[in-house]
Each structure stands twice: as structure tokens, then as C-alpha cells.
Write a structure and sequence with these properties.
Layout: H1 7-42, H2 49-73, H3 79-100, H4 104-131, H5 138-157, H6 166-192
Helix pairs in contact: 1-2, 1-6, 2-3, 3-4, 4-5, 5-6
Length: 193
């Protein structure tokens, strides 16, 4: 007797594999954000070689994560949004390299612009996945909205009399926590199937 997999069963299996890959990626992103913020705080937000390296490393990690996300989601995923995020984060890494040589206000402005634009893209990617009945996207949509608001605050904070990078560390921690919540929600959705 021959068995033929139905397209619906194949689609469900692919969605389950994608949810698992996305969950693992979100867990890695959570861990990275926490470690990164701890290193930034330990560096006392100093803009020396380590500080600039940390600042540039964060958007480069975002590029790598978006590449992994795009590869695991395949043609069914929000590829354009992820490709846009890759480009935005790569530009941000270059911008932060240049801004790092100009001081904390320039870094906060560059980080703020990146947070606004990448947050808007993250929100759109989350909405796209939500429409496809992908679980665990509410925290990602919330994270995108918070990112855009935080970006505006970074730009405004750059004009303060003594601007600090510590808020950037807090931003990373909150983003990491939202990745963890999303990963846990994806895990529950996957177990429900």
C-alpha cells in the first residue's frame, strides 16, 4: 500500500518545523541580549574600543538573526520585511561605527533612528506572521512598537546635558525578555498541535 502525504499535512509539518526553529532563534536572541547588556553595563557605557565594538555587534547580530529567520521561514515567511531588516541593521552597524567616534550623543541618535525603523519593520513582520496564524507574535509586535517609541526617546535623550548609554542596555534587556516570552508562547502553541 502506498501512502501519499496530503498538502495540508505537509503544510502543518512545515509550520511546526518553522515554529521550532523560530523558538530556538528567539531563545538565542534572549540570551544574546542579556549577555550583551551585561557587558555594556560592565563597560560603564564607555565609548572606547570595547564600547564601540559592543554597539556595532548588536545590529550585526540582528543581521545574522534575520538571515537565519529568513532561511528557516522560506518562501512562506515575510521575506521582504526580513530583507529590509537585514539592510537596516547593516546600515546601522556602519552608522554606529562612525557615530562612536563622535561621542555618546551621536551614538544615541544613530541608535534611535535604527530603533525606530527596525521597530516598525518588526511590527510589520509580526503582523504578517499573525495573519498566517503563527503563534507567539504578540510579544514581537509589542517589541516593535516599543522599539519605535524607545528610538524617539534615544534621539531626544541625545540632547541631554550628560547623555548616557545605559538606556541602550535597558532597551536590549527588554527586547530580550520579549523574545523569551515569544519563544515560550511559540513552544505552547507547538505543544497544542
Amino acid at each position: 500500500m502506498t501512502t501519499v502525504d496530503s498538502p495540508a499535512a505537509d503544510s502543518l509539518a512545515a509550520a511546526g518545523r518553522f515554529a521550532l526553529a523560530l523558538r530556538q532563534l528567539y531563545l538565542v536572541r534572549f540570551g544574546f541580549a542579556i549577555v550583551w547588556a551585561a557587558l555594556l553595563f560592565a563597560n560603564k557605557s564607555h565609548l572606547g574600543a570595547l564600547g564601540i565594538t559592543l554597539l556595532v555587534l548588536y545590529p550585526l547580530f540582528d543581521v545574522a538573526a534575520a538571515v537565519m529567520d529568513a532561511r528557516s521561514s522560506g518562501a512562506a515567511g515575510p521575506i521582504r520585511g526580513l530583507q529590509t531588516n537585514i539592510a537596516i541593521s547593516a546600515i546601522a552597524a556602519v552608522g554606529l561605527t562612525v557615530a562612536g567616534t563622535s561621542g555618546v550623543p551621536a551614538v544615541l541618535r544613530a541608535w534611535g533612528v535604527w530603533a525606530i525603523v527596525s521597530g516598525a519593520v518588526q511590527l510589520m513582520v509580526g503582523l504578517s506572521r499573525r495573519k498566517r496564524q503563527m503563534g507567539g507574535q504578540w510579544p514581537m509586535m509589542l517589541s516593535g512598537g516599543i522599539s519605535a517609541l524607545a528610538g524617539a526617546q534615544f534621539i531626544l535623550g541625545a540632547s541631554a546635558s550628560n547623555p548616557k548609554l545605559t538606556n541602550v542596555g535597558g532597551y536590549a534587556i527588554l527586547g530580550g525578555i520579549l523574545f523569551l516570552v515569544s519563544a515560550l508562547r511559540l513552544g505552547r502553541a507547538n505543544q497544542a498541535d
